[in-house]
C-alpha cells in the first residue's frame, strides 16, 4: 500500500509529465512551422530552455506556489488535506493526458484550476469556496491573457513588417560591418584600420571592401527566431513548474527539491510525448514565416515572464496560441476550423478537470 506522501509524489510527477507532453513544444512549434528546425532538434531545444526556466522558478515564482496550493481558495483544513491535493493532481493529469493523446493544445493551468474547484467543492461544499479569490486570482488573468496576446502579436508583427519594408530589407539583403575609413601610409602602402565601424544594409551579398563581417538577413533572423523560441520555453518553465510543485507542499519534498523534480518530469514528458501537439501548433493553426513566428514568440515570452513573479497564473498555451491566432488573422492564413476546435477544447477543459477532480475526491473519501 502506497503512503500518502508517495502517492502525492507520483501524481504530481504525472501532472508534470503531462504538462511537458502538452506544453513543451509551444515555443518551438514556430521553428517547425517556419522550417527552421526538425522535430527532434526543436523539442530538444524546448526541453533545455524549459528546464532552465523550471530551475529559475526557485528564485522567481514563489507566489505561484502559494496560489496553487489552494490556500485562500478553499478552507485551510481542506487545503491541508492530502486527499485534496491528490484529487487535484489526479484530475489535472487525466485531463491533460487525454488532450495530449489527440494532439490538442490545452492549458495545464486551466486543468489545475478546474481540478482545484471540483476537488474543493467535493471536500468542503460549494459554499466553502472563496469565489472572490477564484475570480481575481485565477479567472481574470486566464481570461485576459488570450485576449491580449493576439492583439500584441498582430500589432508587433505589423510594426516590424513596416520597419523592414522601410529599410528595404528582404531575404537577399545583407548587413555589412566594416571599418568606416582606412589610413594608408604612403611610404609602405600599409592600410591601418580606423576605430570607427560602419554598419550598412547591402543590396547584394558581396564581401565588405576590407576586413569586416557580412551577415545575411535571413540567417540573422533565423537566429533571432531560435532565441525567441528558447525564451518561450524558459518562460513556460518559470510559470508552470511552481503551479505543479505546489501539489507537493504537504509532502516530504519542498522548495528546490520539488521544483527540480517537477522540472525534470516536465522535460521527460516533452522528450517522449510532445510530437502530436507540436504538429498541431506548427502546421494546423496558421502558415508563418520567420518574422511572423519570432513576433509571436517574443510576445508570448514577455507576457509569461512578467506574469510569473507577480503570481499571475496565465496560461502559456493561451498566450502562445493566441499570438499565433493574431498572426494568422493579420496574414489571412489562419486555419479557423482548427482554431475553433482548440477554443472548444479550452472551454471543455475547466468542467472536465473539475468533474475528474471531484470524482477523485469522492473516491478518496469526500464528505
The strands making up the biggest β-sheet line up spatially as 4-1-5
The main β sheet shows up as: 3 strands, antiparallel
β-strand number: 5
Return the domain count.
Answer: 2
Calculate the terminal CA-CA distance, rounded to whole Å: 23 Å
> What's the order of the H and E elements?
HHHHHHHHEEEEEHHHHHH
Q: Rg, please?
A: 24 Å
Q: Structural class per helix/strand content?
A: mainly alpha
Runs with pLDDT <50, length 5+? 181-195, 203-208, 210-217
Helices, strands, pairings?
Blueprint: H1 4-23, H2 25-33, H3 39-60, H4 62-67, H5 76-79, H6 82-101, H7 108-124, H8 131-167, E1 174-179, E2 182-184, E3 191-193, E4 197-202, E5 213-216, H9 217-245, H10 256-273, H11 275-284, H12 290-307, H13 316-331, H14 336-363
Antiparallel strand pairs: 1-4, 1-5, 2-3
Helix pairs in contact: 1-6, 1-9, 1-10, 2-3, 2-9, 2-11, 2-12, 3-9, 3-10, 6-7, 6-14, 7-14, 8-12, 8-13, 9-10, 9-12, 12-13
Summarize the structure.
This protein is mainly alpha-helical and about 375 residues long. The chain has 2 domains: about 5-165 and about 220-365, no CATH class; about 170-215, no CATH class. It contains 14 helices and 5 strands.
